[in-house]
Amino acid sequence: MALIVQKFGGTSVADTTKIIAAARKAIREVRSGNQVVMVVSAMGKQTDHLIALAKEISPRPNNREMDMLMSTGEQVTIALMAIALEFLGHKAVSFTGAQIGIRTDATYSKARIRSISTDRMRRALDEGKIVIAAGFQGVDDDLNITTLGRGGSDTTAVALAAALKADRCDIYTDVDGVYTSDPRIVPDARRLERISYDEMLELASMGAGVMHSRSIEFAKKFGVLVHVRSSFSDSPGTIIGPEPERLDAQVCGVALAKNEARITIHGAPDQPGVAMRLFSRFADAHIPTDMIAQNSSSQGRTDISFTVQSEDAVKAVDVAAEVVKEIGADRYDVDENVAKVSAVGLGMEKQTGVAQKMFHALFERGINIQMIATSDIKISALMTRELAVDALRAVHAAFGLEREPSEEEKAAGSEQKSNADHSFENGVSAHLISHLTGMEDVVVEGILLDSNQARFTLYDVPDRPGLAAEIFDRIAEGCVIVDMIVQSVGRDNLANITFTVPRSEIKSVEKIANDVCKAHGCHVDSNVNVAKLTVRGSGLRSHTGLACRMFKTLSDSDVNVSVISLSERCVAVVVDEAHGAVSQANLQKEFSEETL
Ligand code: ADP
Ligand code: ASP
Ligand code: MG
């Protein structure tokens, strides 16, 4: 007898007719001989409605009471679902997060799951009941109700599947699978047959709202196969698992984070330890940051820009104001009218010209890129919010994502799949899991050192559409694999573009950089002896403290970091090559407890 976890999102339980339809799906599964645990969200837009009620009273409602309030939405649905199942003639029992024993930390509105006790669910299942669990909620050690973050019912579902060692986790939603982009914004987006954990995690973290990113972290860590499918049709859906649909595709999907805010700390002292102090303040406030760019250092001062989600912007501005004082920076500013478009794909790691294709697509639409940040399997560009939808469609089209892969392309992908690096293929080892204090504790796959890199920075590049495209066009013509790219706009609307390339390519890249600088009046600076240090794992960006521990370890031994790249799979930094090996050893020591 298989155990299936079925999760129904808000639209799928928006009214009583839909609740009954969902109940029938569970009964169908039971009739074919399986046990079922249902996880349900609040009905329709109920969570938004509850938040709006609180905001009618106070602009900054108390965090604890907000979680108390928001958790009621799911409680309504579990009871109605149990009533529907019994009405349809099936035994059922509903449980809140607390009743099911979902223990979390005490971070209201973003709580992380520590443990789940399965006894009560097992007993109910053994009594032949369908178990209905409230998504999105848990309790902390003092029995305060906590919530997991917007969209968090996916995380409840996958976490329950992991704790119960379920055979499958079905996510029923209002689309019939994971698409190459949000099909409501990009009408010719294509449904993917499958997508790898790493790609889905990155897409979800970059704004693909179809899955809560933390649910994918769970799925990867515990080896849970996730099946995203429609509540309203029998379409085959999408499997999220260890393997990608195609390994050779540069990009598998593009995501839009429409509501972002860019914060710049101006005139920060350019010394080891400053990045650590700055970002640890944001980490302590549980504010994930992205797209970190440090601008030119003049007179020992540097500008540091990064993005946060708009929902964190109010808190982030408070933190920024304090940080400016603490580190002795000049000031900060915020742009709350920006959006981020990201392209994600396992294939981009080993291919040239991916960034160039994206920048070119944006240039052709006349879209100015305000910031660029890349990591191993994603490229993000920041632009003014009004242009973001156009940008998303342009990037989707540039990679031909609407096109169904041919049979040969699928076959070529699957031949390579057997060689793929699947260190998490069957979940993390039981040994390591038994050492985790909390189920959501971060797990590190390894600390990598690439001592063979060179860094180039073009300073004072005019900030207008097309310049990034031109530079990376030229580099792509030489088939050079560009690794990290960071661009941000500095003083007087001049941009800095930093990138790293393999050291063997410095001659040709130097020439290109000099040509570009001559043509556009910018200047180039390079360090041909740099090393890239990478912490590899899963969920690393949203575990806000991890990058800070990395920066602290480096600054404790006086190592300065010149480029930072963040993603869920990797946090990478560039340091002087001379410090590479020692820093790797120090990082290995720092992360030894959580390393696979
Ligand atoms: P639920 O309430 O079932 O959790 P959500 O609204 O959270 O549903 O997620 C489903 C929505 O995600 C879809 O309606 C779609 O607009 C959006 N979405 C964003 N990116 C993607 C994508 N890449 N593939 C499919 N849907 C996406
Ligand atoms: N009801 C919560 C929300 O709207 C959780 C969820 O639907 O996943 O964010
Ligand atoms: Mg959702």
Tell me about this structure:
The protein folds into two domains: 3-174, Acetylglutamate kinase-like (Carbamate kinase), CATH 3.40.1160.10; 254-402 and 445-591, VC0802-like (2-Layer Sandwich), CATH 3.30.2130. The protein is built from 18 helices and 24 strands. Strand 1 (3-8), helix 1 and strand 2 form a beta-alpha-beta unit. Helix content is 35%, strand content 29%. The two termini are 32 Å apart. It is globular and about 80 Å long. The chain is an alpha+beta fold and 596 residues long. A twelve-stranded antiparallel sheet has the order 14-15-13-16-18-17-20-21-19-22-24-23. An eight-stranded mixed sheet has the order 3-6-2-1-9-11-12-10, with helices on both faces. It binds adenosine-5'-diphosphate (ADP), aspartic acid and magnesium ion (MG).
